[in-house]
Amino acid sequence: MTIRAIFYDLDGTLRMNQPNGWQAFIEFANELGLSTTQEDYLRVARWEHYYFAQSSELIADRIAFPDGDSFWHNFGYRQLILLGASPQEAEDLSPKIFQLMNDRYRPADIVPNDLFETLQTLKERGFILGVFSNRSESFAEYLEEIGLSDFFSLAIDAGQAGVYKPNAGAFHFLLEKAGIPAQDAIYIGDNYFADVVGARGAGLTPVLLDVNGVFEKPDCPVIQSHNQIISLLDRRQ
Asked: Are 116 and 65 in contact (CB under 8 A)?
């Protein structure tokens, strides 16, 4: 296998919220009296990744709850049920957590410490580097703000491609812009359902970035930090 390109997801991969949304949600649920376990945390994290990977539930909820507040109230209700709340508890707690998230959730925008050195090494080795994000609008200015724009020759959003991950068309659009075949590319992302399933379906080699150990025994290469991609590439080439 000759890998010529390394493509990345953006949110949750190149940049992260600290704390992330499900961590804050569970902390607020605990504050309001709901008892949770580590397994509850992992289950909610996996479900949130699944849900936002263009799941059938997400598509249905966007139709059923077209305005932002009702959508997020319903989203909170779904999460609370997963955390073990009864339907009545979930109904009572969802608006309270929604308010707490609005009032107090102010995550830091974090770029992992090892990312810059890793990207510099990959660039020096001659890899084509690109980003495909499920954001619906351009994020090129944002990449410049966080100091990453010089590393990437491609920065493509789903709005530009006209399709969202995990649809194979998203990856085909990326490959066409890069001018390389799927077998020559790796795609790195933090969402198994969007990034791994989608990339594999389009013929790319998927690599899962799983910093928090969310996914149990995923059927793909896994890294916990960005610099581990270097040793993975060295073993494969």
From this structure: no
5 phi, psi to nearest 5 deg: -135, 140
Q: Which candidate, 123, 152, 125, places its Cα nearest to that of 15?
A: 152
Residue range 52-76, pLDDT digits in tens: 999 999 999 999 999 999 999 999 9
Residues of the chain with pLDDT under 50: none
Q: What are phi and psi of 185, to 5 degrees?
A: -130, 145
List the one residue out of 7, 1, 2 whose CA is nearest residue 175. Answer: 7
Peptide bond into 19 cis (omega under 30): yes
Query: Rg (Cα) of the chain, in Å, rounded?
Result: 19
Q: Are strands 185-189 and 205-209 parallel, antiparallel or unpaired?
A: parallel
State whether residue 189 is helix, strand or coil. Answer: strand
From the number of C-beta atoms within 10 Å of its C-beta (0-12, 13-18, 19+), residue 198 rates as: buried
Q: What is the pLDDT of residue 1?
A: 59
Distance CA 203, CA 5 (A): 13
pLDDT of residue 146: 96
pTM listed for this prediction: 0.94
